[in-house]
Amino acid sequence: MGSSYSILYRLKDYKECLPFEREHPKELRWDDKYKIFMLTQKEKCQGIWMKDGKSGLIAEAIVTWQSDNVLHIDSFTVLPSHRGQGLGYKLVQAVIDWAQEMDYAHLTGEARIGASWHIFANMSAAPVLLYKNWNDTGEDYMSFKIEL
């Protein structure tokens, strides 16, 4: 891993994220049109991506806000080929750092039970609500809140 990756807070061309999105496992893919719509809503949505010099985009966090004090993580993903290297922690820390710089008081989101929830729990996330069989995916997700 080393220092061969960088964090991008905004992409000038949102189409750059679509090949990344297609590498997700099928159950995690977003509808391309919806993602482009979300990312072009600059007033309410922001993307933070991690880029590897060799592979291109390797991780993303899409965040939205509906108030002046709460930032919500809508999507958080590290490509399967880059998991197990601590990149998820680095990406979540980048989101937390950015949220603190922007004076948000809380970070909220939902994480799949397993490695994703483990990352947020280790970053002081408090569980709020367990969703069984989230949207008929067969997966359980935990709603969480982090005080910033």
Give your account of this protein's structure.
- The protein is 26% helix and 34% strand.
- The protein has 4 helices and 7 strands.
- The protein starts with a strand and ends with a strand.
Count every helix, treating DSSP H or I runs of 4 or more residues as helices: 4
Termini distance?
Answer: 28 Å
The gross shape turns out to be globular
Oligomer: single chain
Short description:
The chain has 148 residues and is of the alpha+beta class. The protein is 26% helix and 34% strand.
Keywords:
alpha+beta, seven-stranded mixed sheet, Aminopeptidase, 148 residues, 4 helices
Give the SSE map.
Elements: E1 5-8, H1 17-22, H2 32-40, E2 45-52, E3 56-65, E4 70-78, H3 87-101, E5 106-112, H4 115-122, E6 126-131, E7 141-147
Parallel strand pairs: 4-5
Antiparallel strand pairs: 1-2, 2-3, 3-4, 5-7, 6-7
